[in-house]
Structure formats: C-alpha cells, structure tokens
Amino acid sequence: MPSNSTKVLLLITLVGGMLVSVSSNSWLGAWIGLEINLMSFIPLMSNVKNMYNTEASLSYFIVQVLASATLLFMVVMKTLTEDLFSFDSNPYAPVVISTPLLLKSGAAPFHWWFPGVMEGLSWENCALLMTVQKAAPLMLMSYLIEINAFTLTIILMSTIVGSIGGLNQTSMRKILTYSSINHTGWMLIALTTSENMWMMYFIIYSILALTVVSAIKLSGVSFINQTMMTNSDTTTIKFMMYTSLLSLGGLPPFLGFLPKWIVIQAMITNNLAPLATIVVVTSLITLYYYLKISYSSFMILSAEPKWNLKSHKNKSISTSWTLMLSSISLTGLVACTMITNIN
Ligand SMILES: *[C@@H]1O[C@H](CO)[C@@H](O)[C@H](O)[C@H]1NC(C)=O
C-alpha cells in the first residue's frame, strides 16, 4: 500500500483527472482525463500484502484499458473520417462511442468485471469505485445519450441485472456492486432528461453509498451472516447500516426516495410510463431482499456471543462521521420537502 502522502497525491490526481475529463471540450481531452484518473486509481488499489487487491487491480486495469483504447480508436475514427463519410450523421456513432463509456462505468451488459473487482477491494476503494469513478464516464455519456432502443436496452438491463443479481448474494460488497449497477441504470434515465437531474441523482447516490460503506466498515461486517451476531454496542451501528441500506433502496421516508421520485416523475412526463413501470417493479424486488436481510438480523436472530462483548476499540471519530452521514440519509427527504414548501 502506498504511504499516506502518496495516497493524498494519487487522490488529488484522481479527482483532477475526473475534472479534466468532465470539463474538456474535445474528445481527446476527455480521454486524457480518463487516463489520468485510471493511472491514479491503480496504485491506490494495489497492496503487496493482499493478493485479492492485486488481482482486482489487474483486472480493473485490463478492462479499463480496453475501454480507453476503444474510446480513443472511435474518437480518432470520428475525427479522421468526418469529411469522407459523415460519422456524425451515422446513427451508430453515438452507440459506438458510448459503449466504452458504459464499460467504464459498469452499466449492465458491460458489468461483468464489476463484482469481481469490488470483492477484492478495501471499503474506501469500493466507495471510490462506486462514486467518483462513475462521474466522468457518465458525464461524457450526456453528450451522446438520446432515447432510443440502445439506451432503453442498457437502462432495462442495468436495473434488472442490479435487482436480480443481488438476490442471492451473501457478500456485502456484491450487494453494493449490484446496487451500483442498478443506480447506473437510473442515472442514465436521469441523464436522458437533463444534466441537472443526473447531477442531483449522482450527488445523493454518492452520499448514500458513502453512508452505507462507512456503516458497514464500522461494524466490520463483510458477509450477511456476520450481521446476525450482534453485540450491544454495535446495535446503533447496525441500525445505521440498515436504515441507510433501505435508503439506498429508495424506501419512502428516507433520502434515497427523493431521486427515485423525481426520476419517476420525469419518466412519466417524457411518455416513458412503460419503462417507469418496469424499473419500479425491479426496485420492489430489491426492497424485498433488503427488508429480508434487515428484518432477520433486527428481529429474529440476535444471538450475542460473550466473546464479542469487549472486542471493540475506540472508534468514536468514525462513529460520529457515520452518525452524521446516516442522519442525512434518515431525515434528508423530510428536510428537502420542507425547504421546497417554505415560500
Ligand atoms: C435501484 O434503484 C432504485 C431507485 O433508487 C431503488 O428503488 C432500488 O431499490 C435499487 N435497487 C438496488 C438493487 O439497489
């Protein structure tokens, strides 16, 4: 693992690369930004002491390089062939340029690398991969996206894979991965309406993902069966973990419902009611198993092994950080509706 100052440097160039990419006014500049971003993330992921990290960083590297090389090739094609035969009037041009971007952000038919990579990462890197690493490719998608059969297929596959894929998972990282694939689909829906709606969705999703990840990290749980054995002072942490999970799943009193609500409304005003119906049904499947996980560990099985009683170190800083984040996720919807109703 790089030392602390190296990590800070790499985090700065990671965010810098993302900013170069989203603010660039040419495709070549966007590609450069994506590349800087990738080259800063790889060393952050790898850890000589842990072979899962190494495997994850290697497969992430290969997939992302495949995507970048394809993107560069398509962009050069677009530039070189513009006066021979118009690439821009070709209906497949947006499709071929957006495919590598979808591969980078892990939207559904291109999601195969995502669960395996996430399984080998530390929680901090999982959070980065679910949030910051998606910003640039999705922002670039906004230049290409329009409502057509290709986009609708990607959206439907993302939401369906996201909800069915998580059904039988026992690993928290896998569940969060499928949730992230699903939210990528929803973000693409938001993107077809407006960039601002996407931005709102993305920011709220990032806050919620961060909340869930910090609560899970605090409770030291990697698999669902570990949540069954609680101990008295992790009950609060478990409460925060499951309320934020339900918030991520879009259950109404929590903040996660707000972006879902706005996107459903947008779909209906854009005459996409059939799409809205399908994605709402897939989100019901999700809520079913989120509720099932939380219900069983809240109510039925709460065995408390004696050896757990004094095992917890002082974690007050990360506890208060998680508490702050999860109170945003608990009360955010109420606060937002209150703010918009005060006139
Ligand atoms: C997918 O996103 C929707 C909208 O936020 C949510 O209702 C649903 O529970 C999510 N599914 C997963 C697997 O996270």
TrEMBL record:
<keyword id="KW-0999">Mitochondrion inner membrane</keyword>
<feature type="domain" description="NADH:quinone oxidoreductase/Mrp antiporter transmembrane">
    <location>
        <begin position="24"/>
        <end position="286"/>
    </location>
</feature>
<keyword id="KW-0813">Transport</keyword>
<keyword id="KW-0249">Electron transport</keyword>
<keyword id="KW-0679">Respiratory chain</keyword>
<keyword id="KW-1133">Transmembrane helix</keyword>
<keyword id="KW-0520">NAD</keyword>
<dbReference type="InterPro" id="IPR003917">
    <property type="entry name" value="NADH_UbQ_OxRdtase_chain2"/>
</dbReference>
<keyword id="KW-0830">Ubiquinone</keyword>
<dbReference type="GO" id="GO:0008137">
    <property type="term" value="F:NADH dehydrogenase (ubiquinone) activity"/>
</dbReference>
<feature type="transmembrane region" description="Helical">
    <location>
        <begin position="271"/>
        <end position="291"/>
    </location>
</feature>
<dbReference type="InterPro" id="IPR001750">
    <property type="entry name" value="ND/Mrp_TM"/>
</dbReference>
<dbReference type="GO" id="GO:0006120">
    <property type="term" value="P:mitochondrial electron transport, NADH to ubiquinone"/>
</dbReference>
<keyword id="KW-0496">Mitochondrion</keyword>
<feature type="transmembrane region" description="Helical">
    <location>
        <begin position="58"/>
        <end position="80"/>
    </location>
</feature>
<keyword id="KW-0732">Signal</keyword>
<dbReference type="Pfam" id="PF00361">
    <property type="entry name" value="Proton_antipo_M"/>
</dbReference>
<feature type="signal peptide">
    <location>
        <begin position="1"/>
        <end position="24"/>
    </location>
</feature>
<keyword id="KW-1278">Translocase</keyword>
<keyword id="KW-0472">Membrane</keyword>
<feature type="transmembrane region" description="Helical">
    <location>
        <begin position="239"/>
        <end position="259"/>
    </location>
</feature>
<comment type="function">
    <text>Core subunit of the mitochondrial membrane respiratory chain NADH dehydrogenase (Complex I) which catalyzes electron transfer from NADH through the respiratory chain, using ubiquinone as an electron acceptor. Essential for the catalytic activity and assembly of complex I.</text>
</comment>
<comment type="similarity">
    <text>Belongs to the complex I subunit 2 family.</text>
</comment>
<protein>
    <recommendedName>
        <fullName>NADH-ubiquinone oxidoreductase chain 2</fullName>
        <ecNumber>7.1.1.2</ecNumber>
    </recommendedName>
</protein>
<comment type="function">
    <text>Core subunit of the mitochondrial membrane respiratory chain NADH dehydrogenase (Complex I) that is believed to belong to the minimal assembly required for catalysis. Complex I functions in the transfer of electrons from NADH to the respiratory chain. The immediate electron acceptor for the enzyme is believed to be ubiquinone.</text>
</comment>
<feature type="transmembrane region" description="Helical">
    <location>
        <begin position="321"/>
        <end position="342"/>
    </location>
</feature>
<keyword id="KW-0812">Transmembrane</keyword>
<dbReference type="InterPro" id="IPR050175">
    <property type="entry name" value="Complex_I_Subunit_2"/>
</dbReference>
<feature type="transmembrane region" description="Helical">
    <location>
        <begin position="147"/>
        <end position="168"/>
    </location>
</feature>
<dbReference type="GO" id="GO:0005743">
    <property type="term" value="C:mitochondrial inner membrane"/>
</dbReference>
<feature type="transmembrane region" description="Helical">
    <location>
        <begin position="198"/>
        <end position="218"/>
    </location>
</feature>
